[in-house]
Amino acid sequence: MTNVLVTGGAGYIGSHACKALKAAGYTPVCFDNHSTGWEEAVKFGPSIKGDLLNPSEIATAFEKYNPVAVMHFAALSQVGESMQKPGKYWRENVLGAVNLVEAAVAHGCTNFVFSSTCATYGEHDNIQLDEDTPQEPINAYGASKKAIEDILQNFADSHDLNHVIFRYFNVAGADPEGEIGEFHQPETHLVPLMLDAIEGKRPALTVFGTDYDTPDGTCIRDYVHVMDLVDAHILGLKWLQDGKGNAVFNLGTGSGFSVREVAAHSKAVTNKEVPIVEGPRRAGDCTKLVSGSEKAEKVLGWQPTRSTLETMITDAWRWHQNGHYTK
Ligand code: UDP
User: Fold this and answer.
1) How many A from CA of 83 to the centre of ligand 1?
2) Which residue CA neighbors atom 4 of ligand 1 most closely?
3) Which distant-in-sequence residues (6+ apart) come within 8 Å of 189 by Cβ?
C-alpha cells in the first residue's frame, strides 16, 4: 500500500487531490481537523481527525500509516480574514507546518508537496509572474505561505526532506463527476459567491473595488481548474519519488480575467443574470495576479485540460446546484 498523508484532505483542493491520488494508485490518508473541511468530502481513503497544532496527533498518523509522502493543503486561506487576524494565520499556518515538517523528518518521510500561493508575490506593476519574481506578499495569508516555503528550504538544507512547492493562482471548478466540489462555510471566494447570487441564495455579488488600474477597474486573476491543479500534484509527487529534487512551480494558465469578466462568463454559462453591487476594495487584494510561467508544462509535463473559464464555471455550476456538504 502506497500511503500519502494529505493534510486538509477534507477541504476543497485536498479532497480533489485525494480523488486524483486514488486514481493514480495511491492511498490518500486524510489528516484534517474539520475546522473548515467536511467529513463527507473524505471518500477516497482513511480519515484521521487531527490537528497540526498537536504534534502527538501528527506522530500517530505517521506511525500508523507510514506514508511515502506528505501533501500539505491544510491552511487558513482567506486574504480578507488574514488582514483582520494575522496572528491566527501565523499560528495555524506556520506553526502547523513546522510541526508537520518536523514529524515528516522524524519518521523518515522524505517527500513533501506543498500548497503555496501566488499571493506570496504581492504587487508587481502589470507583469506576469514567474517563479523567479521576488516574493513580497502584501497580506498575512501570503506572508504565512512564504514563511512555510522558507521553512521547507531550511529543512532541505539541513535534512533529507525534498519538496515540490506549487504556487497556485485562483482555483475554481469542481470534480466533473460531481462527487466533490467547493463548499466553504462561510464562503468568501468569487465563483461560488457569484453562483449563489445567480441562484438567489444571496441578494447580490459585491464587487470589491472598481477603481483598480485595470481595463474595467476590477481586479484581475488567473483561474485554474481544481482537477488540473491536482493533476500537477500527482506529477510533483512522482517527480519527488524519482529523486529529481526540490522544485517550485506556478500553477496558472497565463490568462487573466477581471471580476466583471468572470461575471460575464457566469451569465453565459448559466443563462442567468448576475446581480452585482459595487463595493469598496478589500484590504490585502493585489490588482493583478497572472502567471507568466510555463515551467510546470515544460519541466513537469503538466497539461491542463479543463482550465477555461467556461469549463470551470460549468463544473462549478453543476456541483453548486446538486451538492453541498452538511457534516
Ligand atoms: N471578489 C469580489 N467579491 C467577492 C469575492 C471576491 O469582488 O465577494 C474578488 C476579489 O477582490 C479578487 C477576486 O474576486 O479580486 C478573487 O477573490 P477570491 O477571494 O476568490 O480569491 P483570492 O484572489 O483572494 O485568492
Assistant:
1) 14
2) 190
3) 172, 182
